[in-house]
Write a structure and sequence with these properties.
Rossmann fold; binds uridine-5'-diphosphate-xylopyranose; elongated; six-stranded parallel β-sheet; 460 residues
Amino acid sequence: MNIAVIGTGHVGLVSCVALARMGHEVVGFDVDQEKVSLLQRGVTPFHEPDLDSALHGELDGGRLRFTASASDALARASVVFICVGTPMGEDGEADLHAMEQAASQIARDANDGVIVVEKSTVPAGTAERVRTAISLEAPNLDFDVASNPEFLREGHALHDALFPDRIVVGVSSEVAASILRRVYEPITSNGALLIETDVRTAELAKHASNAFLAMKISYANALARLSERLGADVRDVIEVLGADPRIGPAFLGAGLGYGGYCLPKDVLGLERLSARVGYDFGLLREVDRVNREAMEATVEKIEDALWNLQGKRICILGLAFKAGTDDARLSPAVELARRLRDLGASVVAYDPMASANAQHEVPELDIAPDPYVAAIGAHCVVIATEWAEFRHLDLKALREAVATPILVDARNVLREDQGWAAGFAYYSMGRRPLQRHPGASDLFVLPEPAPLDAVADAAG
Ligand code: UDX
C-alpha cells in the first residue's frame, strides 16, 4: 500500500521503517528540512537500537523515502499516519498545534478515499477535531479518520513496532477497519494481536496504558518512602508483590521517579481531560505528586549525607531519562542536576549516550568522559539512571577518585554490600542508609529502626 507518515520524530521515523519493512511503499514527511536531509542520507537523528541499519535497508530497497514537501508525500497515499509531537502545554493539557497543521496539510493535498490515522498520543476526542478541521478546509474530500496509538518504548522501539504486544485500531467504518487490517496483515499473519475498537476508546486506551505504568512506579516509590520509615527493604517488598502473577514485577522499580517524553505528559493529560469532561481523576494527581516526592526524597538524602550543599562537588552518573536511550527530555537525572546546582553544589556528570542532549537542557553542566573522571574530587556520587554498566562499576577505583566516600544509588542498581565493601557510605531508595558507625574505622551498621511502639501507635 502507499503510505505517508507526517512527522519523523521517534514514533514517526520508527513507523516509517517498520511499515516499509512490512512491505509497504512509504514516504516520510517532515517540515524540518534539515532532518529530512539527514534521513535521505540514512542518518537517524537519535539513538535507537537497530534503526540505522533497518533505515539503510529500506532506503536501499526503494520502499522508503523522505520529503519536506507535504504535497509530494500525500500525492499517492491511500493511508496517512499522523505522528507529530503533542508536547505538554503550560496547563498540563497536550499542545495539539502540530495535529491541526497536519490536518490542514491533508485537507490541501490528500486524495479522495484517504484514511487518516492518528498515531500520536492525543486526548480522546482529537480524531473528531481532526475530522472537523479537514472537512472545513476541504468540504469535498472523501476521507475517514482512525486511531492507531503506538505503544513503543524508547530503546526497543523498532522491536516493539514489528513485534507488538497488541495493535490497537480505533475505527468508525468498515472501510477504515479493512484498510488497517491490510496495513498490519504482514505482522498479524505472524500472530500479532489486533484489537479493534471505536475511535475514542482507542485514544483513551493509549493514555490509560501509560498512566497505569506511571501509577505502578508511583506505588513502588510510595512504598519506598514507607520502607525507609519502617526499616523495611522496598526491593524485597517489591519482589514479594511481583511474584504474584496478578501484579507482576514490571514497572515497580523505586528510584528517582518516571520521566521522559510520554509518562509525565500522559498522566497529566489524562487528568486534565477527565476534569474537562466532569470526572475528578484524583488518583492521577496523586501519581504525579508521589513522582515529584521521589525527586524530593533523593535531594533530601543527598543533603542529609552532605549536610550543606553549598560548595560541594557532586558526581552524577546517568543523565538519560532511562537506560538505553540518548533522550534527556524531562529526565529525572537532569532535573536532579539542575536542583543540586540551584542549591549551590557544582555538578559533574557522565552518561554513556545522553550527555550532548542533557547539556542542551542544562548548558552549564560539566560533562566527564567516564565515571572515574567524573568522580575526581567529588563529595558525593549519585547514580541517577539505571544503565546496566553502572552495575559493574569498579567501586574501588571510584572510591579512590572521590574526596569523600558517599554513594547515593537513586535507581537501586547496586547491592548494598557492594557499596560498603568498597568503603562508601551507601544510600539507596527504600532502605535505611548504611552509615559508618561512630568510632569504628571500617564497620558499617544500620541506624536503629523506628521503635516498635511507634509502629504500634501508628497502627492504632
Ligand atoms: C513509555 C511507555 O512504556 C510506552 O509504551 C509508550 O508508548 C511511550 O511511553 P518510554 O517513554 O520509552 O515508554 O519509557 P518507559 O520505559 O515507560 O520508562 C519511563 C520512565 O519510567 C523512565 O524514566 C524510567 O526510568 C522510569 N521507570 C520505569 C521507573 O522509574 N521504574 C520502573 O520500574 C520502570
